[in-house]
Amino acid sequence: MSVIEGDIERDIERDADGPADGPAGGHAGGDGAGEPTASEDLLYDVIRRLWPLHRTVVRAVERELADTGMTAGEHALLDALHTEGPRTVPQLARTLGLDRQPVQRWVNHAAELGLVVTAPNPAHRRSSLIRLTAEGTAAIRGIQQFEATELRQRLADLPAEDVRTALHVLDRLGEEFRHLANSSRVQPEETDSRGSRDSRGSEGSNGSNGRPEGHDSRPATTPLMHKGRSGA
After folding, report:
1. How far from 32 is each of 11, 23, 26, 62, 174, CA to CA, in Å?
2. Mean pLDDT of the chain
3. Beta bridge partners of 129
4. What is the rounded CA–CA span in Å between residue 142 and residue 2?
5. The whole model's pTM is what?
6. How confident is the model at residue 14 (pLDDT cuts 50, 70, 90)?
């Protein structure tokens, strides 16, 4: 069971024992008293849908990747590298909203599959860059082509303006909850070869060389739909 699953089960058990105060229980108004407003009720509904939606997306991705050797997390890893270019493990962890350990495991397994390689990092001697190989680039491009086809077929009735609104709401929720999650954390710093400080974070441990779990934590950027593996 992941940490998130355990947290959610504890929340469910606590709510079953009695009403909760504040946003987790869905009872407090915007000023800390009274009934929730219509907007708050809608926001609670959005938040309640996020976890089951995430789990459903991960299951769909894992099913489609069954014959590729990749996991849903490695799919998200390749997508991030294809979108943003070569990155360090700490940078990838921040992009995916994860700890470094599961990301390092995904990197290790993707390297075993020939999808990524490490490269020297001009900005930091001890923090290598992770980049896609030609096979990795072909794999994620092929997956994205299938995803685009699926999106056109299944979600063509959604107006672009509705999608933009959904993105705005999700971005705002992510921003506010990141503030809550990180309020007591201090971001570590990197020191490059010239001795200057970099607040992006230092390279974590190399992690396990074993195959990662399909969803060690929260692959937040896992794309919606895909079928098969490119180049197959």
Report:
1. 20, 10, 11, 41, 22
2. 75
3. 119
4. 30
5. 0.60
6. very low
DSSP 87: B
Planar angle of CA 22, 58, 51, nearest 5 degrees: 10
- The secondary element (H helix, E strand) that includes residue 191 is strand 190-191
Per-residue pLDDT tens digits for 19-33: 444 444 444 444 555
**DSSP 3-state percent helix, strand, coil across the chain (nearest 5):** 50, 5, 40
Task: Identify which of 69, 86, 68 has the alpha carbon closest to the alpha carbon of residue 77.
Answer: 86
135 close to 102: Cβ distance less than 8 angstroms: no
Q: What are the DSSP calls for 109-172, one per residue?
A: HHHHTTSEEEE--TT-TTS-EEEE-HHHHHHHHHHHHHHHHHHHHHHTTS-HHHHHHHHHHHHH
In this structure, the strands spanning 190-191 and 197-198 are antiparallel
Q: What pLDDT, in 10s, does the model give residues 48-98?
A: 999 999 899 888 888 888 888 899 999 999 999 999 999 999 999 999 989
Contacts 24+ apart (CB under 8 A), 126-131: 126/203, 127/88, 127/89, 127/90, 127/190, 127/202, 127/203, 128/88, 128/203, 129/86, 129/87, 129/88, 130/81, 130/86, 130/87, 130/88, 130/89, 130/92, 131/81, 131/85, 131/86
Length of the chain: 232
Contacts of 113 (CB under 8 A, 6+ apart): 69, 70, 74
pLDDT (tens digit per residue) in 201-227: 444 444 444 444 444 444 444 444 444
